[in-house]
């Protein structure tokens, strides 16, 4: 059995790989679910190959792209976009490296393994790879912000599915430390997703954001989230009301966050941001506001990244934690991640992957906590 090309079966799903602007005729090395991939432009399209030369395992991303595809810098082996190749020193010696499917959406290149999808009996015809939240509705697509986080996937998902940290970590959105007495939260789940609800007093906006968005001091911040793991993705919807039971403000936001394990200690976050601005000053000045808005989102996500990277990775099991009512999503998402997104096997070998994955770190995954019984 061919053991040269171990591909994690989680790559049967579409995963965001890189901003389109980073994919050029110079090979780009990325890793998704522990699998090395090289991306490059060739013939007007984006090519994704397993990032190893079949001859002596040199990463192809160190090579160069030309009319005949990509050339390995070690012995000059050349590979076409379909993964077939040869070595010019022994032309009769033919090679084949795995090819990944690519697509482009919202200025991001996405990848998946067709072999992994077939091996998992994944319905390729029915799967167009589009999360429902990535379609525009009354919210228009605004921007995408990507962050590479030096922390396991589980710790990233833990942070991004609870809002208790906003009081200490964030500066603009959601609740300040003094607002948590007003916060109501609910969490429920089924076999496929976790649903989360938050409502409470919005921390004071900077004057310019209040002017542009129409959100006023004393308004309530309301957020719903739907978290699933095929692959790990969370869809958030944010809006504001003029007090309890008051009218909804015109301004609203949606975020669709994809969380992808790079390896056991690193996670890739792509946040697709949508906004509803009709009837606000921000809508009238959209072109001027967009760069500022994107910078605000990036800064808030940078604060998430900084705090997550400070968490001790060897103390990630639930048995280390004393949890409260805001941690119900943490318990629920860990259970679903273990069920749906733990590495199961390598497509080329049928042998289980042996990796210290974030889900495996959560040895206490079936523990429940006081006031967090969401199962």
Keywords:
single chain; 375 residues; alpha+beta; Rieske Iron-sulfur Protein; Naphthalene 1,2-dioxygenase Alpha Subunit, Chain A, domain 1; seven-stranded antiparallel beta sheet; six-stranded antiparallel beta sheet; 8 helices; 18 strands; 18% helix; 34% strand; disordered C terminus
Shape: elongated
> What portion of the residues fall into strands of 2 or more residues?
25-35%
The neighbouring-strand order within the major sheet is: 12-18-17-16-15-14-13
Overall average residue pLDDT: 86
CATH topology of the largest domain: Naphthalene 1,2-dioxygenase Alpha Subunit, Chain A, domain 1
Strand-and-helix sequence, N→C? EEEEEEEEEEEHEHHEEHEEEEHHHH
Largest sheet: number of strands, sense, barrel closure: 7 strands, antiparallel
């Amino acid at each position: 059995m061919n053991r040269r090309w171990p591909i994690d079966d989680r790559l049967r799903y579409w995963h965001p790989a890189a901003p389109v602007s980073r994919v050029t005729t110079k090979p780009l090395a990325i890793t998704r679910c522990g699998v090395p991939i090289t991306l490059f432009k060739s013939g007007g399209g984006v090519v994704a190959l397993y990032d190893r030369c079949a001859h002596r395992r040199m990463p192809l991303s160190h090579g160069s792209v030309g009319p005949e595809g990509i050339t390995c810098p070690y012995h000059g082996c050349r590979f076409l976009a379909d993964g077939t190749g040869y070595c010019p020193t022994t032309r009769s010696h033919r090679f084949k490296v795995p090819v990944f499917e690519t697509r482009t959406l919202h200025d991001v290149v996405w990848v998946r393994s067709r072999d992994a999808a077939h091996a998992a009996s994944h319905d390729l015809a029915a799967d167009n790879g589009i999360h429902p939240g990535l379609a525009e509705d009354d919210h228009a697509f605004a921007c995408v912000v990507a962050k590479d986080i030096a922390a396991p996937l589980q710790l990233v998902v833990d942070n991004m599915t609870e809002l208790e940290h906003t009081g200490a970590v964030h500066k603009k959105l959601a609740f300040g430390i003094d607002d948590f007495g007003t916060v109501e939260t609910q969490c429920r789940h089924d076999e496929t997703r976790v649903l989360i609800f938050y409502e409470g007093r919005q921390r004071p906006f900077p004057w310019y954001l209040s002017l542009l968005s129409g959100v006023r001091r004393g308004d309530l911040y309301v957020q719903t989230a739907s978290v699933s793991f095929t692959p790990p993705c969370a869809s958030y919807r944010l809006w504001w009301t003029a007090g309890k039971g008051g009218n909804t403000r015109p301004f609203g936001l949606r975020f669709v966050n994809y969380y992808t394990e790079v390896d056991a200690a690193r996670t890739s976050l792509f946040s697709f941001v949508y906004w509803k601005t009709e009837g606000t000053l921000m809508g009238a000045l959209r072109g001027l506001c967009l760069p500022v808005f994107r910078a605000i989102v990036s800064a808030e996500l940078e604060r998430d990244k900084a705090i997550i990277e400070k968490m001790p990775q060897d103390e990630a099991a639930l048995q280390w934690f004393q949890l409260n009512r805001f941690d119900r999503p943490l318990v629920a998402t860990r259970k679903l991640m273990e069920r749906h997104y733990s590495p199961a096997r390598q497509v080329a070998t049928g042998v289980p992957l042996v990796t210290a994955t974030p889900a495996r770190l959560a040895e206490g995954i079936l523990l429940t906590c006081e006031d967090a019984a969401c199962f």
